[in-house]
């Protein structure tokens, strides 16, 4: 390709991205194109001969702009949103454009140094001591998997057949998945009940550990939650850390959703004790506003990761250097890996942690505002108050709870179809509930008012029809 052609194609992509970010709030949120439409748009014939790149990019630009659900939309309130940010998009483009390698110091010294520095900043935010370390991963699931390998290899290096691990039934499914990948059987996994506020029952936890010891099991790890996906619940991190210490267990905290709260001056106290964990999962592609894929595992003692993952080979011998020069292939699963750190590093530098903290606080304010909107109508029941930027609730019109379950499912579908906002259901206390996670810093109270106008009108119509 000529230089001129390369630039022209590139500038077109940038134009589309900038246009997307500027006009996002006027777009509908939910887009699930028909299977038949996608089937017709994506030709099954293998492309043996080249297409015209200008035409290909024209099609791609249109498909990606118009036919995807906008997870980065300020009215996407489902699951955990991914607001992203433009500086990191550019940084990602830069590192991809140079195909920077971040697997070891020899092949990527600058990348490794940026990763080390950025991890140090995160460790500092999490109140970790000197000597801590970590690794950037594809996301929270991979960070959790990496943590469990570290826990197993450091606590039960020889034989883990009798090893048992403890976590609340509200813990993210990626941890059960990681345990399955690691070869643990259901009989090694202990799902502990949670209390009314969906925090792990620490008394039940202690009893279960003691029973297991008596039965000849080898408890080796407790997982705590710093922001569950369902409701944003935070386990009693100090109590868990104390229990782990007394029984010499690895203490892992899944802060994939909630870890960013440490940036909010007003709310960081809610994660008190987080720095006592042996490992912490963070997920910068959530509330740290990074594009996918950007997860992170921090460990209190950097050597624990090396112990778990360092496997040498003759063709890698030349990469072993000065102890300060971290080879990230020795901290995780991947050898060849992209320069993920650059996007977070760039974002921190271009925006500054103080402003990012204010943006995180906006999520808390939005969730508190939603609570006031719910209080205005009798048919809303708040299931969990907004502790960590997530609020769960349900509409109650009928005596029959089954009918109310169906109503809430229909309401969610109505919001999706309407397109103005996106809200999904979950199951809480045996019933269908709605949950909102309004952490996008560009979410306004006007957006929230309009979303509730749409929902209230639907419920009031249903009510009138049923009378
Ligand atoms: C608490 C929690 N842990 C782990 C994960 C998994 O993270 P990822 O989707 O980045 O793999 C999520 C995802 O929503 C989460 O909310």
Summary tags:
2 domains, 12% strand, binds pyridoxal-5'-phosphate, alpha/beta, 467 residues, single chain, globular
Report what the structure shows.
The mean pLDDT is 97. The chain is built from 14 helices and eleven strands. Strand 4, helix 9 and strand 5 form a beta-alpha-beta unit. 44% of the residues are buried. The protein folds into two domains: 259 residues, Aspartate Aminotransferase, domain 2 (3-Layer(aba) Sandwich), CATH 3.40.640.10; 113 residues, Aspartate Aminotransferase, domain 1. Helix 4 runs antiparallel to helix 11, helix 12 runs parallel beside helix 14 and helix 13 packs across helix 14. Helix content is 43%, strand content 12%. It starts with a helix and ends with a helix. With 467 residues, it is α/β, with parallel strands linked by helices. Strands 1-7-6-5-4-2-3 form a seven-stranded mixed sheet, with helices on both faces. The protein is globular, with a radius of gyration of 24 Å. The site of pyridoxal-5'-phosphate has 13 residues, from helix 6. One of its GO terms (molecular function) is transaminase activity. Keywords: Aminotransferase, Decarboxylase, Lyase, Pyridoxal phosphate, Transferase. Belongs to the group II decarboxylase family. InterPro entries: Aromatic_deC, PyrdxlP-dep_de-COase, PyrdxlP-dep_Trfase, PyrdxlP-dep_Trfase_major, PyrdxlP-dep_Trfase_small. Its cofactor is pyridoxal 5'-phosphate.
């Amino acid at each position: 390709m000529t230089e001129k052609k390369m630039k022209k194609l590139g500038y077109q992509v940038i134009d589309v991205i900038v246009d997307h970010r500027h006009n996002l709030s006027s777009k509908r949120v939910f887009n699930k194109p028909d299977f038949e439409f996608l089937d017709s748009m994506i030709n099954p014939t293998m492309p043996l001969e080249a297409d015209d790149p200008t035409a290909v990019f024209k099609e791609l630009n249109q498909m990606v702009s118009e036919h995807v659900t906008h997870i980065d939309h300020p009215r996407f309130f489902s699951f955990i949103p991914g607001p992203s940010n433009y500086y990191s998009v550019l940084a990602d483009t830069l590192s991809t454009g140079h195909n920077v390698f971040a697997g070891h110091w020899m092949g990527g010294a600058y990348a490794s140094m940026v990763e080390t520095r950025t991890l140090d900043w995160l460790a500092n935010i999490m109140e970790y001591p000197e000597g801590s370390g970590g690794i950037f991963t594809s996301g929270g699931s991979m960070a959790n998997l990496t943590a469990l390998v570290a826990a197993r290899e450091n606590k039960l290096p020889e034989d883990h057949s009798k090893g048992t691990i403890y976590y609340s039934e509200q813990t993210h499914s990626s941890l059960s998945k990681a345990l399955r990948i690691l070869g643990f059987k259901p009989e090694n996994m202990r799902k502990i009940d949670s209390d009314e506020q969906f925090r792990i029952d620490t008394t039940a936890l202690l009893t279960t550990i003691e029973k297991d010891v008596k039965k000849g099991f080898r408890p080796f790890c407790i997982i705590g939650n710093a922001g569950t996906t369902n409701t944003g619940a935070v386990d009693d991190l100090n109590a868990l850390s104390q229990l782990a210490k007394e029984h010499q267990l690895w203490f892992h905290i899944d802060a994939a959703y909630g870890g960013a709260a440490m940036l909010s001056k007003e709310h960081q106290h809610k994660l008190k004790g987080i720095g006592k964990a042996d490992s912490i999962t963070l997920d910068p592609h959530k509330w740290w506003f990074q594009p996918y894929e950007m997860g992170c595992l921090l460990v209190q003692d950097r050597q624990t990761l090396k112990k778990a993952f360092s496997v040498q080979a003759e063709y890698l011998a030349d990469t072993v250097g000065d102890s300060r020069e971290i080879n990230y292939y020795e901290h995780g699963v991947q050898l060849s890996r992209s320069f993920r750190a650059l996007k977070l590093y760039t974002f921190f530098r271009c925006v500054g942690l103080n402003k990012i903290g204010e943006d995180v606080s906006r999520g808390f304010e939005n969730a508190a505002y939603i609570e006031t909107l719910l209080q205005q109508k009798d048919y809303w029941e708040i299931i969990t108050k907004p502790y960590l930027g997530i609020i769960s609730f349900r509409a109650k019109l009928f005596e029959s709870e089954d009918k109310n379950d169906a109503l809430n499912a229909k309401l969610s579908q109505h919001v999706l179809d309407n397109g103005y906002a996106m809200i999904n259901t979950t199951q809480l206390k045996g019933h269908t509930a709605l949950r909102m996670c309004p952490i996008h810093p560009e979410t306004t109270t006007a957006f929230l008012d309009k979303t509730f106008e749409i929902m209230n009108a639907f419920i009031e119509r249903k009510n009138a029809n049923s009378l």
